[in-house]
Each structure stands twice: as C-alpha cells, then as structure tokens.
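[Meeting: bench + compute handoff]

Bench side (C.D.) handed over the final construct sequence. Compute side (W.E.) agreed to return the predicted structure before the next meeting so the bench team could plan truncations. Sequence as handed over:
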Amino acid sequence: MNIVSTASRYSYSVLNRDCKCLMNEYSFIKKIKIGKSVLGKELFCLRFGEGDKKVFVNASHHGNEWITSILVMRMLEEMCYLYRNDMSYRLYNIKEIYKKVSLYVCPMVNPDGVDLSVSGLTDDLPPIIKTRLISYNGESKDFKDKWQANINGVDLNHNYDAGFSKGKAFEASEKIFSPGPTRYSGAYAFSEPETVSIKNFMLNLSPDIAVAYHSQGEEIYFDYEGKACQEARSLAHFMAEISGYKACSPEGMASYSGFKDWIIEKFNIPAFTIEVGLGKNPLSLSQFDDILQKNFPMLLFLLNK
C-alpha cells in the first residue's frame, strides 16, 4: 500500500504526515530544512541519492496547485521502493541513479497558500491576517480552490529576480497593483521568505538541473528570453516525446520573474517548468494516475542523463 496520500486534498499537515511515514519506511531519505513560510511553517527538502550530480525539483509555488506536491512525493516514494527492492523501471536502473545522482525534492514551496486554498480561513489564523486576506480577496471570504499566492498575497512564482521590472509592466497593463489571489509579484524581487529560502538553498547547492512542477496544460517550459542552453533544448525535446507534453515557451506575464527564469539566468543550467494535467485548478485527483504515468518517466530520464 502506498504511503503518500492520493485520495484527498493535500494540506501541509498531510504532507508532514507523509514525510514522517516515508522517512520511517526508508531510512536512506534525508530531510533538509531550508527556511520558513510567512506563518512559520517549515520549508524543507527530501534528499534521495548520494551522487555528485545534483537535481532539484519543487512543487506548489501556487496554493491551488497542491496536486503537484502529491506528484513529487509519490514519485519519490516510487523511487525509494524500487531502490530498496533492487528493481528497475523500464530501462532505468534505480540503484545506478542513486549512486550517481542526488535528488533534492522541495514538495511544498507555499504551504500557507496551499492551506488557504484547501481549507479557507481557519480558526488558527490571527484576526489581523484574516482581515488583511479578505481585503486582498476583494472583501470575499471565499478562498477555497481560488488562492494561488502566499499569505501576503504575493504570487511566489513571480517573485524571483529575473526580468522583474518587465513582469511589473505586464502587471500594470492588467491593472494589478496590490496583493491578491494571483499574479501580484510583490514590492520587489525576493520580498517573500519562501522565495528567499529557495534562493539561498540554490546558491548553496548549485544544482545541475532544476524543475518546478505546476498545473495545468501538459506543457514543458524550458527557455527564458532565449537564454536556455542547448542541453536544455535537447532535453525538453526528449521529455516531450516521453510524456506527450508540448515543449514550448510561456507568453506574456508568465515569461518573467519565475523560478525557472532565475535559475536559467543565474546558473546557466537546464531548468524547466512542467505544467501537469489539464483543466482548471485545482485539478481533480481523478487525473492523478495519468499525471504520474506521464511524469515519472520524465523525471527518471532527467536523473539518468
């Protein structure tokens, strides 16, 4: 029976329960604390492998995209099971991957936003924060399934220092000037503790490949202002063949100040935003098996390169 829950909406507390159970079952998984959210929730990575090649993946930059947290946790669990039982997946030797790669999984970049999208205004939120959130939400108390931003009303995947001013210009053209459910990039790049935590961990880790999982669209974004290295373009082509997803570039506001964009500009390595599933966020869990079947081979391909 699988440890990682795929039967219900995925909150921060469920994630922590799954992490504890996963680490109890597979002692070779290591937990690394990397920071805290606005509300003090611990941000962390789980490490699988002992190799020199470093691959970093993250999920749930956006609150109502919590299905991506389930995805990365379930893929990690699958690798742990295969490794312990000395099993391969298709042509991929998991023990060989473990020896040559260190995979770092940050399963929930935005735990405050996830909990707000999953559960709405809960009793444990301080009154001053509730009042502020209602203001950010157009005086509505309805947050379930709609909230992407962090608890400060900042869209974390627009808060990175890559074309930040250009992203701001797009915001202004769409009359976005203040915190809200989505697309407000913050007063300045890295204004939020969540993105600062990711930045500091990346600077310390210096990854070889980085992936951010989002939903939805079944697309693989691999470029930023034509700066993607040739390896990234080649990998994206093969990833598209493996998954049936489309390798392409984002347009408009989505073209700037994202995690992938900053990684490409800062490290000049292959970096990808993978938009999983189809439909409206939050995606139905009825899609999960299909999402897993398309994304697990993609991840193993990247680890094996």
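W.E. noted at the follow-up: The CA atoms of residues 38 and 193 lie 6 Å apart. C.D. will use this when planning the next construct.
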